[in-house]
Design brief:
Phosphorylase Kinase, domain 1; four-stranded antiparallel sheet; Transferase(Phosphotransferase), domain 1; 4 domains; 19 strands; alpha+beta; seven-stranded mixed sheet
Length: 535
């Protein structure tokens, strides 16, 4: 172990202790030593599975006796914490020394994010955080950008982490944590699956609970979320690559829902703020879905195990009609003929359709149009509107049953749909990007933003349809490049073109006159170049 930092001086005294390498990991040993000593005041050598530790006794003073006693007795972190009574049984410790040990022992119980995912910490145990940025409020969570001590995350993702702090002061918050704990632990197994959706889903690092607080650790998204990206980026700055990138990300995001569906899971709060942008993949980056955990995982052996479902934390703007606040706590979803109430996984298809529509507004109508749409919608304006059905006497029904309401897209949403169609309706010279964007718009309008969830595409159908659009767009782009190259190679050389004998037209001499030839002519009526066959 290459940490031979002690410079041996004639006037310095050094303490030495040897311990079995099987009793402590290199990271743990260094972590303990570095909390007490500068690196130039100790050394560690490993030979034949034995650590030899040497430290400067003059610098450490009386503390070296405690260190030597602990190491010699193979006293390790798993013996902590120790109460006052047990500490006072040690005759070598004075009262104030035992009390100091009791108060400072908690720093050695900081968790190591390696072989374990969930940690229940005692109130005084420190988190392994060495740097913490300012918080950002997100719903009922506080999110911090943090650095974790390297010794406490040996196999974790490089760079900073996002630490979400949850309050557990009331029963609802505690229940939310229980749901999220189960969901997050299941997500860690996804890397074992051969499915493209796993590359677009953020997986947790660890979860710690301490008293009435919970801390969830995730990889930090340096580039922010999709909403930040739309807000800060002019789509014209990525004009050549934007639509191919957008199509690829849409395929990836729908693959996540397909993957979650295979796990009997749904997200229930899809929105641009829950889609984060990570570097990699290309110049723009890779979009990944976070915050899977609002809803429960439904591992159901039979329909008898269906339970009522709540999704109170869903953002109203992106929620579908079946989540209708006019009937709180009672969401209609007659699934598989069951009389139990349960949200369908096609809940997420509506939400993703809303996100895709905003994506198209930003990409094809421009950032200013998206800004205007975002301002008009706000956080509570849904994409749909509701009108009560009329009774026989012509008055509005007072029933709270959502089946007696008529739903339609909100007018400002319809306005953007019309603008997109007018912008994308294919002229004769439509670009492959416009054709693809129009196909996505049709998919969103006809198969995703459908009021009756039973008429929406499933996640696998959305993913397959988007993949077809992506493949066709790639093919059209390749053909366009090929046609451009051919046009440049096969251009007409006007220096060899001769008149045909009259002013009514021009003909090429590239073929004999007695064969069928393509004659170039000028129309007397409209002055346009055309082609006619001569024999």
């Amino acid at each position: 172990m290459p940490h031979k930092n002690v410079q041996q001086e004639q006037n310095s005294s050094y303490g030495t202790i040897r311990i079995n390498a099987k009793d402590v990991s290199p990271q743990q040993l260094l972590h303990i030593l570095e909390r007490r000593l500068p690196r130039d005041k100790f050394s560690v050598e490993l030979q034949q599975d034995v650590y030899t530790i040497r430290w400067d006794q003059d610098y450490l003073g009386r503390g070296n006796q405690g260190m030597e006693t602990c190491l010699s007795a193979r006293f390790s972190d798993n013996k902590l914490p120790m109460g006052r009574g047990r500490l006072m049984q040690n005759d070598t410790l004075k009262y104030h020394e035992a009390e100091m040990f009791r108060l400072q022992q908690w720093q050695f119980l900081s968790p190591i994010f390696k072989d374990k995912f969930q940690f229940e910490l005692q109130p005084r145990v420190f988190l392994p955080v060495i740097e913490q940025g300012e918080y950002k409020k997100a719903g009922f969570r506080f999110v911090y950008r943090v650095k974790v001590h390297p010794a406490h995350i040996p196999d974790g993702p490089p760079g900073d982490l996002a630490m979400k702090e949850l309050s557990l002061k009331d029963e609802e918050e505690a229940k939310c944590l229980k749901r999220e704990m189960k969901n997050l632990e299941s997500l860690r197994e996804l890397d074992r699956l051969d499915h493209p959706g796993r590359f677009h889903l953020i997986k947790p690092v660890a979860v710690c609970t301490r008293g009435e607080q919970a801390f969830l650790f995730f990889p930090w998204a340096e580039n922010g979320d999709l909403y930040n990206f739309w807000e800060s980026t002019d789509p014209r700055s990525h004009e050549d690559t934007l639509v191919p990138w957008m199509l690829g990300q849409m395929v990836g995001l729908s693959s996540v829902l397909e993957l979650l569906a295979h796990m009997n899971c749904r997200h229930s709060d899809l929105k641009p703020q829950n889609i984060l942008l990570f570097p990699g993949g290309n110049s723009i980056g890779t979009l990944k879905i976070t915050d899977v955990g609002i809803s429960k995982f439904h591992v159901l052996a039979t329909t008898k195990r269906l339970k009522p479902t709540s999704a109170k934390d869903v953002t109203m703007r992106y929620c579908p009609p079946e989540f209708d606040e006019s009937n709180p706590g009672k969401v209609k979803d007659n699934l598989e003929g069951s009389h139990e109430l349960k949200l369908s996984r096609r809940f997420d298809i509506w939400s993703l359709g809303c996100v895709f529509l905003e994506f198209l507004v930003w990409a094809k109508l421009g950032r200013e149009a998206w800004w205007e749409f975002d301002k008009d919608m706000g956080s509570s304006q849904k994409f749909w509107d509701r009108k009560a059905s009329t009774t026989a006497d012509g008055s509005d029904s007072e029933s709270s049953d959502t089946s007696e309401y008529h739903y339609s897209l909100r007018r400002r949403v319809q306005k953007r749909l019309r603008q997109l169609r007018e912008r994308l309706e294919p002229p004769p010279d439509a670009t492959p990007d416009d054709v693809a964007a129009l196909d996505v718009l049709t998919l969103v309008e006809k198969k995703m933003l459908v009021f009756d969830y039973r008429g929406r595409f499933a996640a696998s159908e959305v993913r397959d349809h988007l993949k077809e659009i992506q493949d066709e767009s790639d093919l059209l782009r390749e053909q366009q490049i090929s046609d451009t190259d051919n046009s440049a190679t096969l251009g007409v050389n006007l220096d060899v073109v001769e008149p045909f004998g009259s002013s009514e037209g021009l003909t090429t001499t590239a073929v004999p006159r007695d064969n069928a030839a393509a004659q170039i002519y000028v129309s007397e009526n409209n002055g346009l170049w055309g082609w006619e066959e001569q024999r």
